[in-house]
Design a protein that fits this description.
Order of helices and strands: HHHHH
Radius of gyration: 26 Å
CATH superfamily: Ribosomal protein L20, C-terminal domain
CATH architecture: Orthogonal Bundle
Number of helices: 5
């Protein structure tokens, strides 16, 4: 009979990976080799999507600021240029929140920049 070496360590490691892949489908949830590959791919997607999320939020903030500028007959690019020239240091996230929640305050900021 062949002696099994390191069974406990290997079994514990396999169970750890299988637990992470609990909600996967077919062999990707219970065949160790496929589970390992699926988890690697999942990690790649997670890493990529964390970067994409930042891009999407910046795009959303720009759209909101642009819409608020259009209400006041101004272009987004002109508004940002005026912001830099007048040295008002508000980032796009804060500006978009102001534009959505407090339009009168955003109008005052716009007047201040002109």
């Amino acid at each position: 009979m062949v002696r099994i070496t390191n069974w406990f360590t290997r079994h514990r490691r396999h169970k750890k990976f299988l637990k992470l892949a609990k909600w996967f489908r077919l062999g990707r949830k219970n065949v160790y080799k496929q589970v390992r590959l699926a988890l690697i791919k999942q990690g790649q997607h997670e890493y990529r999507n964390r970067k994409e999320k930042k891009r999407e939020f910046r795009r959303l903030w720009i759209e909101r600021i642009s819409a608020a500028c259009r209400v006041n007959n101004t272009k987004y690019s002109e508004f940002i240029n005026w912001m830099y020239k007048s040295r008002i240091l508000l980032d796009r996230k804060v500006l978009s929140n102001i534009a959505v929640l407090f339009p009168t305050v955003f109008n005052k900021v716009l007047e201040q920049t002109k």
